[in-house]
Design a protein that fits this description.
The complex is a heterodimer of chains A (273) and B (230). Chain A is built from 12 helices and 12 strands. In chain A, the strands form 2 sheets. In chain A, strands 1, 2, 3, 4, 5, 6, 7, 8, 9 and 12 form a 10-stranded mixed beta sheet that branches. Chain A has a two-stranded antiparallel ribbon with strand order 10-11. Chain A is α/β, with parallel strands linked by helices and 273 residues long. Helices cover 45% and strands 24% of the residues of chain A. Chain A has 2 domains: 153 residues, Periplasmic binding protein-like II (D-Maltodextrin-Binding Protein, domain 2); 113 residues, 3-Layer(aba) Sandwich (D-Maltodextrin-Binding Protein, domain 2), CATH 3.40.190.10. Chain B has 230 residues and is mostly helical. Chain B has a single domain, classed as MetI-like fold (Orthogonal Bundle), CATH 1.10.3720.10. Chain B is 80% helix and 0% strand. Chain B contains 10 helices and no strands. In chain B, helix 1 crosses helix 10 and helix 5 runs antiparallel to helix 7. Classes of the chains: A alpha/beta (273), B mainly alpha (230). Chains A and B meet through helix 1, helix 2, strand 2 and helix 9 of A and helix 2 and helix 9 of B.
């Protein structure tokens, strides 16, 4: 296998030289969530950021858990995710420099139009989850340690229920992203928790509808962190900090607020509040 | 909008983003085929022509690895190239280079195993002749690889088809970054997750058409070559 090794090392070396030449341009990598990408926010925000600073941004869109892991391994310069407890753990482990609130929106409980659990129009998410359990109505869980999944688990906990541990057959953990979960729930006639931005921008809504919204417990906060250069010396501190500063600035916050789909605002800036 | 017209509109609109995605798909998969051929063909030929302890085991391994799960290859390459991995200092993760490496790892066994088979078949045919002429081992390898070239085109196509079709490995090591590491298959996965199934299907049709066109031209080339060689 020595030959293989030599070829690989040679290839890697030549390509590394090539990519380090490329690294001269101003590019950062952000590990973020599927909701910010799938909703189109980055397509709206990044061109404005680039126009202001000349910095190119590469976005890796993953669930919050996976995005934080990507940053832990040193494969991103900035994280932009939405699960405060997981973010604070990341910070406590020393991988982040500082965690800052950027914006929020909310989660919504989506369900089949036929509403078998009879929860439609409720403003009480906990009571609604109890009703779904009582009727054993199908429920799709992300099951992927994403921000939305962690939020869902917290809500079940608040309801005093543990369908994930109880192996309830109406509760399906699919281990996939938000969009895939919406597709699955639609096909199964199931309820699921979604962030509002992904729901609004989702293109296959027919057959699904918002069942529960407006409960304060459905609040969804997004935060941004620069990856700690003390852990990963190759982190592009200046460029990454420029992104953090931009999204927190009055200008960046306005760009976020201005992003709308069909007249609906998807994210509400709340930096420094 | 039905699936077919969606794809057609996309192609006709000449969307530069779509063009870039298609181009990157081809560049990555063709580079992977080239790299895998560089390793797999000599390797397959050597295994066909030489006898050494463990040869049978190596053949079984090569054959079994033709079915390597892309997601496992992706994960292995990811761990290797990640900043926390042994080759992390090169900064190759989430680049097209990483995608080429992952696909090359995926298809090298395919190319090596199929090359071995082709060369071994020829070897049986030419053994006495080559022995009588006293052809040295290295020259034998070159002669037989050259003689098998028409069959090897099919081998390359098998490798290309596998590389162009997989999504598991490039998703993990490329990260599906817009305008940088997004290829046909990861776009299809992304559009599916956005709930835009017609667009996803349309992209799928484009991908199938491209793979079909490449196979058709390779087949045409083969027919032409066979006629020339006789």
């Amino acid at each position: 296998m020595n030959f293989l090794k030599i070829v690989f090392t040679a290839t890697a070396l030549s390509l590394a030289t090539f990519s380090s030449v490329c690294a001269q341009d101003k590019t950062i990598t952000i590990a973020s969530t599927t909701s910010t990408q799938d909703s189109g926010l980055f397509n709206h925000l990044l061109p404005a950021f680039k126009a202001k600073t000349g910095i190119d941004v590469k976005v890796i869109a993953q669930g919050t858990g996976q995005a934080l892991d990507t940053a832990r391994r040193g494969d991103a310069d900035v994280v932009f995710v939405h699960a405060k407890s997981a973010e604070e753990k990341f910070l406590a482990e020393g991988f982040g420099v500082k965690r800052l609130d950027v914006m929020y929106n909310d989660f919504v409980l989506i369900g089949p139009a036929s509403d078998p659990a009879g929860v439609k129009g409720s403003k009480d998410i906990v009571a609604s989850l109890k009703a779904i359990k009582a009727k054993a109505a199908p429920f799709v869980s992300r099951g992927d340690k994403s921000g939305t999944h962690l939020a869902e688990l917290d809500l079940w906990k608040a309801a005093g229920l543990d369908p994930a541990g109880g192996k309830a057959d109406w509760y399906k953990e699919i281990g996939q992203g938000m969009g895939a979960a919406l597709n699955t729930a639609k096909a199964m006639g199931a309820y699921l928790l979604s962030d509002r931005a992904t729901w609004i921008s989702f293109k296959g809504k027919d057959g699904l509808a918002i069942a529960v919204e407006g409960d304060t417990r459905l609040f969804n906060q997004y935060g941004v962190m620069l990856v700690n250069p003390a852990k990963h010396p190759h982190v592009k501190v200046a460029l990454g900090q420029a992104f953090v500063d931009y999204v927190l600035s009055a200008e960046g916050q306005k760009v976020i607020a201005d992003y709308k789909i069909e007249g609906q605002q998807l994210f509400f800036p709340n930096a420094n509040k | 909008m039905n699936e077919g017209s969606g794809a057609l509109q996309l192609v006709l609109s000449g969307d530069p983003a779509l063009y870039n995605i298609v181009r990157l798909s081809l560049v990555v998969s063709l580079s992977a085929v080239a790299l895998a051929a560089l390793i797999g063909m000599p390797l397959g030929g050597l295994v066909a022509l030489t006898r050494f302890p463990g040869r049978a085991l190596l053949i079984v391994i090569l054959n079994a690895f033709m079915g390597l799960p892309p997601v496992v290859v992706g994960l292995a390459v990811f761990l290797l190239l990640s900043r926390s991995g042994p080759l992390g200092s090169f900064g190759l993760l989430f680049t097209p280079t990483a995608m080429v490496i992952a696909q090359a790892v995926l298809i090298t066994p395919i190319i090596a195993a199929l090359t071995r088979q082709s060369v071994e078949d020829l070897w049986v045919e030419y053994r006495d002749e080559l022995n009588a002429m006293g052809v040295k081992p290295f020259a034998r390898l070159i002669t037989l690889l050259y003689d098998a070239r028409v069959a090897l085109v099919t081998v390359l196509l098998a490798g290309f088809g596998r590389a162009a079709a997989e999504v598991g490995a490039v998703m993990i090591v490329g990260g599906n970054i817009n305008g940088f590491t997004r290829v046909m298959t990861t776009s299809i996965a992304l559009e599916t997750s956005k709930g835009d199934l017609p667009l996803a299907m349309g992209l799928g049709l484009i991908l199938i058409t491209i793979v079909f066109a490449i196979n058709a031209s390779a087949w045409g080339l083969r027919l032409y070559a066979e006629r020339r060689i006789g």
